[in-house]
Design goal:
heterodimer, A: 328 residues, mainly alpha, ABC transporter involved in vitamin B12 uptake, BtuC, 2 domains, two-stranded antiparallel sheet, 2 strands, globular, B: 487 residues, alpha/beta, Rossmann fold, 6-stranded mixed sheet, 17 helices
Chain lengths: 328, 487
């Protein structure tokens, strides 16, 4: 297989995880941690497919996925911000609940052919050498997800509401002093984040792997997406790079498997997960005390280089992530 | 802008923080608000800046009655507050902090606002790098940023809450210059402080608060003595403990340096002998807690040594300090000292656990009953500690300390207690000192400090000065807490 096609195939599989990572990044940037991602993706995938099948419209399927995604987010927002219950526990319970709901209500729809989003090459661009097949001969959702990454980046760092959103997650008390209705805005961004995650779920069942089954193949993606949000340092573009990296690892594992057919397939399908943990370690290792001690013993040139690399990789979460804000 | 507060009342549970405060501040003046910890200064300023709504009373700006529902509304009407710990965003850049919440435009025009920020900062001689992260700034620079930001929002009344606690001398001077300049431009500045000399040199008029009431108002040629009287009342307490026989040195601090993120205590040397009681005085957060925690083995000094009973304990683990028979009583009783959801007997079982895997409940209950008698705790071995009153919690905490500690370190041992509990606890402590225990305690009650200690270490912005209590008066102590003799 030649390289452009390979990279194109990595991008083609990326919308679900890209949307999931993007949605969670928005939610966490506001200081709310929505742990229900894995269940949300599964449930919205099922709902998206079923609605699209019944109404014979993929658009309706996507809308349904977004509505369900924000509904799950609403439950989390209500429980944590109105009833002041812990976000992490609520998120866990929602994950399990959504997964079971998806399996129960999806049972009748397993292995049924249904509508799916078709390919749409962009005329004029798709014939360009190298980048044509990578970027412009794709599914509309791939275009949309990449544009969404840029859009969220622009919103975060170039607009006043985006700045307020950052303030919300960093220090809600200070945001409140600056006139932000902390609870209302956290509700809003939790719902928006949930809707985008729902878009990711629906894009799996309507594009990447059309249809529904149990198990379905998206299980586990939500957890990885949560890790990628950390890897991405709550920065949409870096998070997108992380998501694509993970997809590339999965593709690489598949390739390796075809090269070495004797090795059990399970080995390769689990390979991307430990590699992702290692990259995550690289991101946080700079924070540890012992790292500094070890680095101090290295020769000057190497030490400088390593410190600079680790510093560039290092991320820190929104300071008030997962905390509850109450007015005085 | 003229500011008037009329008959402001604000109550938090059992504490009447503001009890009918009436105050009027002329436009274009620098007005000082003076008082001890807990006098009600901060509450009053939070009411004026929209953080708290008063239970009763009226706020008038330029003769118009005003109601704020949030700090943002107060800012919109021209009243801004600079908090002791600036309410900003350490992770964000200076320019983003300046912009956050200010302009109404959707897209951020960082270039344009950068020049606006630079212009305003230059006018007051502040130097702020717009690209720097706020976490890299000192507290003084963060204050400057907040002042500039509030002014850019059109604030006419600026409230500063203890602004000089954590900043350098140069920063303080540049702050004071800026404040004077602001009043010349017609703005009203309210300067909240407990430091007499600062208020005297800076303000044209001062209002003194004590116990939630206005206890005095004066133009600023008022002698210091009068101000001290207004702050601490007329009672003249004089130190009593003149003849105490002291044993050999228990605690020796040699050129100790300590720091946390806002404060540095430098080069402190102190020797405490067996049977001696040393009080640590000063406004909260002047360094007393750092020293106490270092002696307890909870904070590693950045330089210097800690000797306990002739043994060098510097840098040793907390466990070694416990074994050296040091008792530490934190200020936050239920957060750091006791476990609200456990009973008295469970506390005993936890503190005096033996090597056995199983708990000897009979013994724990027996010991708990014994402590209850000994320390006069009003409760049963099965009472949850969270259900005890403050005084009884404090006695419980005392009863859990090693029976005859060499050194006892206490933060606010009698804060929030009634007279009877206070007397009782000091009787217990004095009995200990007679058997050779040395005591170091933090208190914000000047009378308690004078009455109970042999010497007082007065802390002021990380600096320490020793004072003999024998024959010393409340005036002397009050003046020193206010910073006299530190420059």
């Amino acid at each position: 297989m030649d390289l452009p096609i390979l990279i194109g195939s990595i991008l083609a599989a990326s919308p679900p995880i890209l949307f999931a990572v993007l949605g969670e990044t928005i939610t966490e940037k506001a200081g709310v941690i929505n742990l229900s991602l894995d269940g949300s993706l599964l449930l919205t995938a099922m709902v998206g497919f079923v609605v699209a099948l019944h109404m014979d419209s993929v658009i309706a399927g996507f809308l349904a996925g977004m509505v369900v995604g924000s509904l799950i987010a609403f439950i989390l927002a209500f429980v944590s911000m109105t009833l002041y219950q812990p976000q992490v526990a609520t998120g866990f319970v929602l994950t399990l609940l959504c997964r079971d709901l998806a399996y129960v209500f999806g049972k009748a729809y397993a292995h049924i052919p249904g509508p799916q989003v078709s390919h749409a090459a962009i005329p004029g661009f798709s014939d360009l050498p190298l980048i044509g097949p990578i970027l412009f001969d794709q599914n509309p959702l791939v275009y949309l997800s990449l544009m969404a990454v840029i859009l969220v980046w622009f919103f975060f760092f170039k607009t006043q509401p985006g700045l307020l959103l950052q303030g919300l997650g960093e220090r809600p008390a200070a945001a409140y002093v600056r006139g932000v209705d902390v609870t209302a805005m956290r509700y809003l961004y939790t719902l928006i984040g949930g809707a985008i995650v729902g878009l990711g779920g629906a894009s799996f069942s309507l594009m990447v792997k059309p249809g529904w089954a149990r198990p379905y193949g998206i299980e586990g993606t939500g957890w990885i997406a949560l890790a990628i949000v950390i890897f991405g340092g709550w920065h949409p573009i870096r998070a997108a790079v992380g998501a694509l990296l993970f997809n590339a690892l999965q593709t690489a594992a598949n390739l390796l498997q075809s090269v070495m057919p004797d090795v059990p397939t399970q080995l390769f399908s689990t390979l991307p997960f430990p590699v992702m943990i290692l990259t995550l370690l690289l991101v946080t290792i700079g924070n540890a005390d012992w790292t500094k001690r070890v680095l101090n013993r290295l020769p000057e040139g190497m030490r400088r280089f390593l410190i600079r690399t680790l510093k560039a990789l290092q991320t820190s979460p929104p300071a008030s992530l997962g905390t509850i804000f109450k007015k005085e | 802008m003229k500011v008037e507060l009329k008959d402001i009342h604000k109550r938090f549970g059992p504490i009447q923080a503001n009890d009918g405060i009436t105050l009027s501040i002329e436009p274009g003046t620098l007005h000082g608000l003076l008082g001890e910890n807990g006098a009600g200064k901060s509450t009053l300023m939070k009411v004026l800046s929209g953080f708290l709504s008063p239970d009763r009373g009226e706020i008038r700006l330029d003769n118009k009655t005003i109601r704020f529902d949030s700090p943002a509304e107060a800012v919109a009407l021209g009243v801004g507050m600079l908090h002791q710990d600036p309410l900003d965003f350490p992770a964000l850049r200076v320019i983003d902090n300046f912009l956050l919440g200010s302009p109404r435009e959707f897209l951020l025009d960082r270039k344009y606002h950068q020049t606006r920020l630079a212009e305003l900062a230059n006018r007051f001689g502040f130097r702020l790098d717009p690209e720097a992260r706020v976490s890299e700034l000192s507290i003084g620079e963060r204050q400057q940023l907040e002042i500039v930001r509030l002014l850019a929002l059109g604030v006419n009344v600026l409230i500063l809450d203890e602004p000089t606690t954590a900043i350098s001398t140069q920063q303080r001077e540049s702050l004071f210059r800026a404040l004077s300049q602001l009043t010349e431009e017609g703005k009203t500045v309210i300067f909240v402080s407990h430091k007499l000399d600062e208020v005297k040199s800076l303000c044209s008029k001062v209002t003194v608060l004590a116990h939630g009431r206005v206890t005095g108002e004066a133009a600023m040629d008022c002698p210091t003595k009068e101000l001290v009287k207004m702050m601490f009342g007329q009672v003249l307490t004089v130190g009593k403990r003149c003849e105490v026989r002291l044993g050999e040195p228990i605690l020796e601090l040699q050129n100790l340096s300590l720091s946390d993120w806002r404060l540095e205590v430098k080069d402190l040397s102190l020797k405490v002998q067996a049977g001696e009681v040393v009080g640590l005085a000063g406004l909260e957060g002047s360094g007393q807690q750092l020293v106490l925690r270092a002696c307890a083995g909870l904070l590693r000094p950045s330089a210097g040594r800690i000797w306990i009973a002739h043994r060098d304990m510097t840098g040793r683990p907390y466990q070694d300090f416990i074994e050296a028979s040091i008792g530490y009583m934190p200020a936050a009783r239920l957060e750091e000292g006791l476990i609200a959801g456990m009973t008295l007997a469970e506390h005993i079982a936890l503190t005096e656990r033996g090597p056995s895997l199983f708990i000897d409940w009979t013994m724990a209950v027996e010991r708990a009953s014994q402590r209850i008698r000994e320390f006069n705790i009003k409760g049963q071995p099965t009472t949850f500690v969270g259900n005890l009153s403050g005084g009884n919690q404090q006695r419980t905490l005392l009863s859990l300390l090693p029976s005859q500690p060499k050194l006892l370190l206490m933060e606010h041992p009698t804060r929030g207690l009634d007279m009877e509990s206070m007397e009782y606890i000091w009787r217990l402590l004095q009995a200990l000192t007679q058997q050779g225990t040395a005591i170091l305690f933090i208190s914000s009650d000047p009378e308690e400090l004078l009455e109970r200690s042999d010497r007082i270490a007065i802390f002021f912005g990380g600096k320490v000065r020793m004072m003999d209590t024998c024959g010393a008066s409340l005036f002397d102590l009050g003046e020193s807490i206010g910073g006299k003799g530190f420059e």
